[in-house]
Amino acid sequence: MAKLAIKNENITSFGGIYHIMDVFSKLGFEKLTESVLGKRECSDKAFSHGSIFGSLFFSYLCGGECLENINTLIGQFRQRPGTQLPGADTVGRGLKELAEENIVYKSEISGKSYSFNAAEKLDTLLLRMIRQMGLIKVGSHVDLDFDHQFIPAHKFDAKYSYKQDFGYFPGWASIGGIIVGGENRDGNTNVKFHQEDTLRRIMDRVISELGVTIERFRADCGSFSKEIIQTVEQRCNTFYIRAANCGTRYEEFRQLKEWKSVEVGYEKYDVTSINMDNLIEGKSYRLVVQRSPLRDKGGKKQTDMFGVIYTYRCILTNDWVSTEKDIITFYNGRGASEKNFDIQNNDFGWAHLHVLSD
């Protein structure tokens, strides 16, 4: 007996996106977006900022990579009753309207100027969305990670980086797996250059908009400078920053006697702590030192005339209570936050930046 199938022309492989649209609608993101960004300065019939973000975001969730993919998916989106979303050209114009003026800093050493873009309105909108979704509770104590991510881009304003490509070098702050702020910077900007200003803006905004206390701050050696440490220490309870130039202290470390053996991540290390009093006048910090023997390709320890050769790594902190093992374990956890960059690159368009100007 022949089987009959009734085909509905409205069947779509992207039907799951309609549930997400319903959730966004119930959360009131359209009104929230308008309250932060204001109405578009166009006719009353123009698409709102919320609709523009919706087209872009929903296309990413359906596997879109480029702005033009919106035009392929827009017909699917409009099958949801009452849904009117803009196409790629309108989205591009709408995003361009949100551009903010760059902040330009001039280096006193080289005389060169570097452009930063704080995108304050968009960062504020991000935090208010996070708060409205209840992702981070008001009054909670949080751990804030900060890092930079080079984004290759052959755009008209992209600068050549030491990464040997043209692009941008934004700094990003995250709490757990949630990005809570970012600032774009020229691709040729040194990571430490005016980073204290970026952190001041981001951390102050996180504290005021989310109503949280930054309990712990984590960053790599790109944040190891006097100005950055002073800025961070004023805005968190404890900080953990990878110390740079540990090699210059090699002789000092070799003279240390009070080493303890610990296991971190199934690897054994010797650890100790020393005071660091010469970084900022009137301040004393704790330098947690970790050493491991240098080994050859066969796994044999390498030696010189003084004995075993060690590799040293250090973490600067104002935490005088936790053990060395706890501090190293916590710092190593920042690697998980770097997964945020993989997600943004692969799923949300960082690898395919839109051309909004020429």
UniProtKB/TrEMBL annotation:
The lineage of its organism: Bacteria, Pseudomonadati, Bacteroidota, Bacteroidia, Bacteroidales. InterPro entries: Tnp_DDE_dom, Transpos_IS1380. This is Transposase DDE domain-containing protein. It comes from Tannerella sp. oral taxon BU063 isolate Cell 8/11. It holds the Pfam family DDE_Tnp_1_4. Residues 8-245 form the Transposase DDE domain.
